[in-house]
Amino acid sequence: MESKRRNMFYENKKQETTCNLPPFCDFGYPGYTALVGYSVAGFRSNASDSGVGGCVELVSPEGKSVLVEVAVAGVLIGSRPDLTFLPEELDQGRNCGVIRGLDIDCRSNPLAIDPWTHSVILNPKEVTSEGEDVDKQEDAGSTSLPDLYAVGPLAGDNFVRFIVGGAVATAASIVDRLQLTVGDTAVSSE
C-alpha cells in the first residue's frame, strides 16, 4: 500500500531541535514546526519522563527515516479525506454526507453528525447543494451510527477551537454508552 503524503506539525519539547531536520518555514508560532510532505511511521511515548511527550518517527519526502522528540504532534490530512476504510454500506462516506450521494469534502460536504454526540448519521435528511431540505425521505430514515464519530473538519468544524468541543462531545457519548451497557449488565445479573 502506497503511503500518502501528510502534513505534520510538532511542538518541540525543549524549544530546540533534537535531530537533524532540514530548515522549514517559520509561520510565526514559536516552538512549532510544519513538516510538509512527511509521513508518520510511528509514535513512541516517553515512559521514563512524566508521561508527557515522546518521539515521532517520520519518513521524509526523500524516504529517509527521522526521529523527532515532541511534546505534542498532530497529523493533518487535508481537505479531502480518504474514507475507503469505511464499511461498504457507507459508500466511502457518501451515504453520510450533508449532501447525500456526493463525495465527502471537508469544505463543501462534511459528514452529517449529531451535534450533541458527534456520531455520524447514516442517510441524513437530504438537502440540496443550496441547503434546502428535500421532503422525499421515503426510502430510509436517518440513523445515528453509535460507533463512528467525526470531529474537526470532517464534521464541518473548520476552526481549531471547535475541535475540543467535538472531542468532549464524543468522549461524553462513549462514556454514556459504556455506563448504559455496564448498568444493563448489572441490572440483568440481579
Task: Note down, in words, how this protein is organized.
This protein folds into two domains: 7-76, no CATH class; 83-190, no CATH class. The chain is 15% helix and 24% strand. The chain has one helix and seven strands; from the N terminus they run βββββββα. The model is unreliable at 1-8, 11-27, 135-139 and 186-190 (pLDDT under 50). β4 and β5 (65-76) form a beta hairpin. It is an alpha+beta fold. The strands form two sheets. It has a five-stranded antiparallel beta sheet with strand order 2-1-5-4-3, with no helix packed on it. A two-stranded antiparallel ribbon has the order 6-7. The radius of gyration is 20 Å and the shape is globular.
Q: What gap, in angstroms, lies between the N and C termini?
A: 51 Å
Sheet with most strands: 5 strands, antiparallel
The parts where pLDDT drops under 50 for at least 5 residues are: 1-8, 11-27, 135-139, 186-190
Average pLDDT score? 71
Shape by Cα distribution: globular
How many beta strands in the DSSP annotation? 7
Strand % is 15-25%
Spatial strand arrangement across the major sheet: 2-1-5-4-3
> Which series of helices and strands comes N to C?
EEEEEEEH
As for the number of domains, it is 2
Structural class: alpha+beta
Radius of gyration, in angstroms, nearest whole number: 20 Å
**Secondary structure tally, helices:** 1
| Multimer state | single chain
Helical residues, percent:
10-25%
